[in-house]
TrEMBL record:
Top-rank taxon: Bacteria
Topological relation to the membrane, as annotated: Lipid-anchor
Domain Solute-binding protein family residue range list: 73-463
Protein keywords: Signal, Transport
Name by which UniProt lists this protein: Peptide ABC transporter substrate-binding protein
Gene3D superfamilies: Dipeptide-binding Protein, Domain 1, Dipeptide-binding Protein, Domain 3, Periplasmic binding protein-like II
Signal peptide boundaries: 1-21
Pfam families membership: SBP_bac_5
Taxonomic source organism: Levilactobacillus tangyuanensis
Family: Belongs to the bacterial solute-binding protein 5 family.
Xref: PROSITE patterns: PROKAR_LIPOPROTEIN, SBP_BACTERIAL_5
Entries under PANTHER family matching the protein: PERIPLASMIC BINDING COMPONENT OF ABC TRANSPORTER (PTHR30290), PERIPLASMIC OLIGOPEPTIDE-BINDING PROTEIN-RELATED (PTHR30290:SF10)
Subcellular location(s) of the protein: Cell membrane
Length: 546
């Protein structure tokens, strides 16, 4: 799944994970045609897995050692046997005898070696190179201090892949289910050269489906059953048609006229269809939050946002229950902290990480305490009023709704606070956030895999995605311990992460607002879809039309 850094991107990218076209299941036909028709809010930007900027649906066409099954659990993929060394640093994967590319070529161990090296080659410009951290020499390669050829993977023989790690990685199996780590066919890359991945036919696929009718542009494309897929016997769908629908009302009309099997609902539409039998809500491990700029170019503003009492006052002034239930009304929920609920469970007790990260008076609405914190902060700063701007990407209607709500809530509860709204195009928000040109930023983060570290790595001082430049040595040390010293001890590692998450809550270095939930109308003839809150969000492998 993509890491979202601006509110405007979420609707487009999320729905691309659930995308499609018109034409298909004729209402008059006696037997279902096994064609699924889905809406997308944006075109596919690339089909080159080494260059992708998100992996919400690519697990359907690219498969690695594992794939993501139900409830975020790993399921069998191209490997039919896996061996882990006692020190947890060497993994041996045996590739299935019947694993083939969509063109009939045999999938070999060398295809995995080539894939990882190609993705890590600087000229490829992969935006996901950091995901190779922890794999032997991965960090050195990412830092430009070692060559891609030194990454810890080699082919023992034609069907055996050996992966070596610098340290145990607690979530390694889940990581290997991520499409980024799937094989790539060197022969095909060389055959097509510059044309490679520019059209659906200039690509081969290792998953249950292959892409057709995609030419780099255009508002329709399809996933077609891959008859060379090793587990093709369980794949019931013949085709998944995608159609770009940018207007929610248009999408609803297409659904009502039996042209689509799904309709993505806006907040207003949810209110009208909440009691409809076709109404479905799908949660995502995405937390919408406020980023503070601790390195603001304006020294006075920098002092304000660096004051913990001020940040805590802001957090306590937001009635998240009202925001999620009445303002948004789409099933989004109140978070307990920076890490999403439903993402990971305590290895010892089975309790949700989100419950354990909770800190009193951090994500609750407490206007009286907010006023006290505000007064204390103003006194410490020697000022009587605060003027700040909040930036958000304006290509999502929720951005305007949320920023307007925040302005009202904060100005009502905190005397002397003036909040200026800056709703800008998503591309502008992205550019300004990366260059540190903001005061407050309405931002998103979505988990790439089912482990708290997918969230907790963001606030680390050295992380380039830590746009507000918050820095805390103790926090950095806790995350370092979780990733290194305690990586092979699940329970100890878990406690490192709990302490780190509680620190974020206590200091309000990031202020969580709500956890996203997305609403759809889904035709009741659509069965067998697998939805996950992280990674490959939608799997069509077992889906069918009844």
């Amino acid at each position: 799944m993509k890491k979202w850094t601006g509110i405007g991107l979420v609707a487009a990218l999320i729905t691309v994970s659930l995308s499609l076209a018109a034409c298909g299941n004729s209402a008059s036909s006696s037997k279902p045609s096994q064609v699924l028709r889905l809406p997308a809010t944006a075109q596919l930007d690339t089909i080159d897995l080494a260059k992708a900027t998100g992996y919400g649906q690519t697990g359907n066409v690219f498969e690695g050692f594992y794939r993501l099954g139900k409830n975020g659990k790993v399921a069998p993929g191209l490997a039919d046997s896996i061996k882990e060394s006692k020190d947890q640093k060497t993994w041996t994967f045996h590739i299935r005898d019947n694993a083939k590319w969509s063109n009939g070529d045999k999938i070999t161990a060398q295809d995995f070696v080539y894939s990882w090296r190609r993705t890590l080659t600087p000229s490829t410009k992969s935006s996901y190179r950091n995901m190779f951290s922890g794999i032997k020499n991965g960090d050195a390669i990412i830092a430009g201090k070692a060559k891609p050829e030194t990454i810890g993977i080699h082919a023992k023989n034609a069907q055996t892949v050996v992966v070596k790690l610098d340290k145990p990685i607690a979530y390694f199996k889940i990581l290997m289910a991520y499409p980024l780590f799937a094989p790539q066919n060197e022969k095909v890359v060389n055959k097509y050269g510059k044309k490679y991945a520019t059209k659906s036919e200039y690509m081969v696929y290792s998953g249950p489906f292959k892409i057709s009718n995609w030419s780099g542009t255009g508002n329709t494309w399809s996933f077609v059953k891959n008859n060379h897929y090793w587990d093709k016997k369980v794949v019931k769908l013949n085709k998944v048609n995608f159609q770009v629908v940018t207007n929610p009302q248009t999408g609803l009309s297409l659904y009502q006229n039996d042209k689509l099997d799904f309709a993505n609902l806006t907040n207003e539409q949810v209110k009208n269809y909440k009691n409809d039998k076709a109404f479905k809500e799908y949660p995502y491990s995405i937390v919408i939050h406020l980023k503070y700029n601790f390195q603001d170019a304006d020294k006075a503003k920098r002092r304000i946002m660096s004051n913990q009492n001020i940040r805590q006052a802001i957090a306590l002034s937001i009635n998240r229950s009202q925001l999620t239930k009445k303002v948004l009304g789409d099933g989004s929920v109140t978070p307990t902290g920076f890490v999403a609920s439903g993402l990971a469970k305590d290895p010892k007790t089975g309790e949700d990480f989100a419950k354990q990260q909770e800190v009193k008076d951090s994500t609750t609405y407490n206007p009286s305490l907010a006023k006290k914190k505000w007064a204390a902060g103003l006194k410490e700063l020697g000022i009587k009023k605060v003027d700040l701007s909040i930036m958000a990407g304006n290509d999502d209607v929720a951005a305007s709704t949320v920023t307007q709500y925040l302005k009202g809530a904060l100005e009502d509860n905190l005397k002397g606070f003036n909040l200026k709204i800056q709703n800008v195009p998503a591309s502008v928000a992205q550019s300004r956030s990366t260059s540190g040109d903001f005061d407050l930023y309405l931002s998103h983060w979505g988990a790439d895999f089912n482990d708290p570290i997918s969230f907790l790595q963001i606030p680390v001082s050295s992380n380039s995605l830590n746009y507000g430049k918050w820095s805390n040595k103790e926090y950095d040390q806790l995350i370092d311990k979780a990733q290194n010293q305690d990586a092979g001890q699940p329970e100890v590692r878990w406690q490192d992460m709990i302490k780190a998450a509680k620190m974020l809550n206590k200091t309000q270095s990031f202020t969580p607002l709500y956890q996203a939930n997305y609403a759809y109308l889904q035709r009741n003839t659509v069965k067998g879809l697998i939805h996950n809150t992280a990674g490959t969000q939608w799997s069509y492998k077992y889906a069918y039309i009844k």
